[in-house]
Amino acid sequence: MLDDTEDRATFTAMVDGTAEDYAKVTAAFGKFSKTLPDRVLEHLKMLQGDAGGFAVDRLEHSLQTATRAHRDGRDEEYVVCALLHDIGDLLGTFNHAELGATILKPFISDANYFMLQNHGIFQGYYFFHHIGLDRDAREDFRGHEHFEYTAQFCHLYDQAAFDPNYDSMPLEAFEPMVRKVMEKPRDSIYLRDDGTAL
Ligand SMILES: [Fe+2]
Ligand SMILES: [Fe+2]
Questions:
Q1: Separation of alpha carbons 191 and 123, rounded Å
Q2: What local confidence, expressed as pLDDT, does residue 193 receive?
Q3: Per DSSP, what are the bridge partners of residue 151?
Q4: In 3D, which of 153, 180, 163 has the Cα closest to residue 97?
Q5: Each residue's pLDDT tens digit, 140-184
Q6: How much distance in Å is there from the Cα of 120 to the middle of ligand 1?
Q7: Do 29 and 39 form a contact (C-beta atoms < 8 A)?
Q8: In angstroms, what is the span from residue 61 Cα to ligand 2's centroid?
Q9: Neighbours of ion ligand 1 (CB under 5 A)
Q10: pTM for this structure?
Q11: Which residues of 98-113 are buried (b: 16+ CB within 10 A; e: fewer)?
Q12: CA dihedral of 36, 173, 112, 126, whole degrees rounded to 10
């Protein structure tokens, strides 16, 4: 994936960098950023196998959540959020919701970002009371403009997506949606003033 033959900058400390150096860095970033969906999809596949004690593994749960949202008529951005909502599971073991939200933040609405970022606490409504936690922890967000939106995601799709007999769509069916939604950031420090990406 990484190209060893690419033209490299010559500075050894950034204080010595020149525009010529950064033309090379920027060209490399332009290529690298376009393959972000590939890296995300590859990482999502790593959720296969480990079920975390649930009846289906993490990948099946993700596919099932996305399939339920898609069949319910949700738009592509929402479905992609549903597909990737637990992608932070492997590296964000204690804050998986925030990690997934952070990966998608440049590409999604404020409502979807809030939903991803906080779905862990909202999902807790369905099981925290079984493990000695407060199922009403989500009440801290009551009154927030995206409270119901997030509660609905958990109720309709996330908490309902642990059925081994559900007919989930395959990952390949969602790939074009992931590529489309992640095609161009709408919010990033790497966007120029005229809105063009590097
Ligand atoms: Fe989650
Ligand atoms: Fe989930």
A1: 34
A2: 83
A3: none
A4: 153
A5: 999 999 999 999 999 999 999 999 999 999 999 999 999 999 999
A6: 5
A7: no
A8: 7
A9: 86
A10: 0.94
A11: ebbbebbbbbbeebbb
A12: -120
Q: What is the DSSP string of 96-154?
A: HHHHHHHHHGGGS-HHHHHHHHHHHHHHGGGTGGGTTS-GGGGGGGTT-TTHHHHHHHI
Task: Specify the CATH superfamily of domain 38-181.
Answer: Hypothetical protein af1432 (1.10.3210.10)
CA dihedral sign of residues 182, 104, 138, 166: positive
Residue 197 forms beta bridges with which residues?
191
Which residue is it, tokens 């060209």? 27
- Two tokens, residue 18: 């020149």
Cβ count within 10 A of residue 172 = 8
Give CA–CA dist 135/179, Å, rounded: 36
Q: How far is the CA of 85 from the centre of ligand 1 (A)?
A: 6
Long-range contacts for 162-166 (Cβ within 8 Å, ≥24 apart)? 162/54, 162/55, 162/56, 162/61, 162/64, 163/55, 163/56, 163/64, 164/55, 164/56, 164/60, 166/64, 166/67, 166/68
Residue whose tokens read 């500075």: 11
Q: How far is the CA of 25 from the centre of ligand 2 (A)?
A: 37
Q: Which amino acid is at 160?
A: A
Nearest to 58 by CA among 35, 91, 98: 91
Dihedral pair phi/psi, residue 13, rounded to 5°: -140, 140
Query: Any idea where the domains of the chain sit in the sequence?
Result: 38-181
